Amino acid sequence: MSNRRSIRVLTYNVHSCVGTDRKIDPGRIAAVIAEARADIVALQEIDVRRRRTGGVDQASLIASLLKMEAHFNPAMTIAEEQYGDALITDLPTRAIKGGPLPSLGEQRGALSVEIIVGNRKLHVINTHLGLRGRDRIRQMTTLLGPSWLQSGNEPTSTILCGDFNAVPASATYRLAARTLKDVQLSDGRSARPTFPSRYPMVRLDHIFVSRDLAVINAAVPRNRLTSLASDHLPLIAEIRLAD
User: Fold this and answer.
1) How confident is the model at residue 1 (pLDDT cuts 50, 70, 90)?
2) Number of structural domains found in the chain
3) CB 134 within 8 A of CB 104
4) What is the pTM of this model?
């Protein structure tokens, strides 16, 4: 592990594992992730013990199928039913934090995990921002502030990813782009849309990384499986770790 020079990061809004064919199938989501050979997986719209999707803990089930470990943060909790975001990986983790983001509309949250790659620390944050423009700006401002990204005195290699519900022309996207770099714009290729999965037209899902991390490539896998598994396509980036 100490000789590792790159990692693969995937972000994916899985739509409660309900596909475009209306079938509930966490196994299909796990298959998409396995095919991408991701080391760190950020999932949004995960159901945990919700009756509408069979009472399954989707985060734990997907992690089990991948032989990984899941960390989950509920953006919403109703009795025993939860809905939110997950980070899944087989790499060592510590300093796990989850919590709400300022929301006037539907409540949103974020999940932060410190991931150890050899002798390096990666600060990974997964989020799903709101549908209202004002909410998104407040949420992104919060994420970029001292309680999330700027926590701690030492600079840390950072990955911020998720469904931002924001296109590149938006104020929310531009806030992130001031201090972090968009993986889809770092390899010289054209950026690919992620939504909707059958006929993708817009980029709502993003992976941003700190300036010290080099992007080897980024891709939006589009095939029969990814077009069926969710209403979003996954976004994956291979990232080189600096010496």
Assistant:
1) very low
2) 1
3) yes
4) 0.96
